[in-house]
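Weekly structure sync, notes
Attendees: PL (lead), two postdocs, one rotation student
Agenda item 3: pending single-chain targets
PL asked that the sequence for the first pending target be pasted directly into the notes so everyone works from the same version. It is reproduced below exactly as submitted, 121 residues in total.
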Amino acid sequence: MALAGLLAAVESLGYLGMIFGVGPAWLVTLIAGLAGGAFPLAIAMFNLRTRTTMGSAAIAGFAMGIGYLASTLDPLLGGWLYAVTDSWTMALWDFAGTVVPMAIGGLMMTRPGRYLEDKFV
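Predicted structure, written out during the meeting:
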């Protein structure tokens, strides 16, 4: 749970650093980029939170479908916000806001002793 929370925190810190111009650009970009570690963590959690290969396939299919949809649409929204406002500020606020579903998902998937099959079988 600590790793999921840490990854969510560094994402928001990186984007907020970009918005407010805190520190050198390379550093805040690096900090925001560390949140990319959430993807392999989520993939690992599919297997750690299921008891069977069927359960793992089911949760992976659902989570990846939702995740790829969001990860496809949010950059489009960010580009549209930039085009409308002629500034990256609103787009960066949008990207910083992705920490909310990321943190909720992290909390849900890292609770100990919970398995998909226990809830749906």
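Discussion points:
- The radius of gyration is 16 Å.
- Residues 2-120 form one domain.
Action: rotation student to compare against the earlier draft before next sync.
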